[in-house]
Design goal:
The chain is an alpha+beta fold. The chain contains 12 helices and 8 strands. The longest helix is centred in the N-terminal third of the chain and has 42 residues, at 86-127.
């Protein structure tokens, strides 16, 4: 079987030689029906003999077990020599060290970002230390710190991935170019979404409002139930929900920060004693502070504004009190009840507008 394969291989080489010989040789060979094996070997070149020798060695590997064992041993030695090559091992170790350093920097930057965000959030909290009534501290953690931390984490992940690919000899410039074109395309195609996103980040970083606070946006006033990078969800006093995108926000009034000033106004007849009315306001405030629940909620003494308006029905007087943030004016409404009580005790006559 082996000799037949060798003869077939030699015959194929001979045909190629015959095809490349001059026309005289071709015409003379046409007279011979069969060429002898010795004459074919004479026409075979040195390079073709090399092919025959290689083919013969390949057949030896298949036929002789000792040849196969020798080839396997040679391959094992080559692999072993490659593995113990110090330069190869040094390159692998250096590659792993660089990857480990990059991932170490990633986790260090992520931890540092978390601490910086926590420090900044605590600084914002200290500016408004009296916001327990609206769970300010919890809401600012939910709306600002977590969101910024997630954004920075994804940025660090993308940068780390690109650096690792660069170490592994992967060309990252096409990836960067593709990401750049993708970002530009998205920016033009979704202009309003990008605008909402940027305005949302600015609003969150400035701490203008947080979940649980009562704000007025445009003509809508309600409690903030959700803030994300695209819109704000307000719960109105009627119970309805209004979704306001950041791109539509031009003015924000926050009723849940620092303090609240409530102005109590009453319309009385023009012949009443103003000093007696001032005394009624003060007594009402003292009665309000006597209640433990409101003692710490009212921050200052009464500010009596006196007569602020004259009408055909009488004169309007007012007084102001300063309290903790009270978006619903619950403290002010209770104070008005005590003012009305003191007015009746001192026989202050209210103006009868209907007469």
């Amino acid at each position: 079987m082996r000799n037949i394969l060798i003869l077939i291989f030699i015959a194929s080489l001979s045909l190629n030689v015959c095809a490349e010989t001059p026309s005289e040789t071709t015409s003379s060979s046409q007279g011979n029906s069969v060429q002898s094996l010795e004459k074919q070997l004479e026409t075979i070149s040195k390079s073709q003999m090399d092919y025959i020798n290689r083919f013969n060695k390949l057949l030896d590997i298949f036929d002789k077990p000792e040849k196969r064992a020798e080839v396997c041993k040679s391959l094992k030695n080559d692999v072993y020599n490659k593995l113990i090559d110090l330069k190869f091992i040094e390159d692998i170790i250096y590659l792993f060290i660089k990857i480990i350093v990059i991932y170490g920097l990633y986790y260090a930057l992520r931890s540092l970002a978390k601490r910086v965000i926590h420090h900044k959030i605590e600084a914002i909290k200290t500016k408004h230390p009296k916001q327990e009534t609206v769970n300010y501290k919890n809401s600012i953690d939910e709306t600002i710190s977590k969101l910024i931390y997630r954004i920075l984490t994804w940025i660090f992940r993308i940068i780390t991935t690109l650096l690792v690919l660069d170490i592994l000899k992967v060309n990252v410039y096409p990836i960067l170019l593709g990401l750049s074109f993708l970002c530009i395309t998205i920016a033009f195609a979704a202009k309003s979404i990008v605008e909402d996103f940027i305005n949302g980040i600015i609003t969150l970083l400035r701490g203008t409002m947080c979940v649980g606070e009562v704000v007025k946006i445009g003509e809508s006033k309600g409690e903030v139930e959700e803030i994300n990078l695209k819109y704000i969800v307000l719960r109105l006093s009627t119970g309805a929900i209004e979704i306001i995108p950041f791109s539509a926000i031009s003015r924000i009034v926050n009723y849940s920060r620092d303090y609240h000033v409530f102005e109590s106004k009453i319309l009385i007849e023009g012949n009443q004693d103003i000093s007696l009315i001032e005394l009624c306001f003060k007594n009402a405030l003292a009665e309000l502070k006597s209640i433990p629940t409101f003692e710490q909620n009212v921050e200052s003494d009464l500010t009596f504004n006196g007569v602020i308006e004259f009408t055909e029905h009488g004169c309007r007087v007012s007084a102001s009190i300063k309290s903790i943030p009270d978006p619903g004016n619950s403290i002010g409404y209770i104070y008005n009840q005590y003012v009305h009580k003191q007015m009746r005790i001192n026989n202050i006559k209210f103006s009868n507008v209907g007469k």
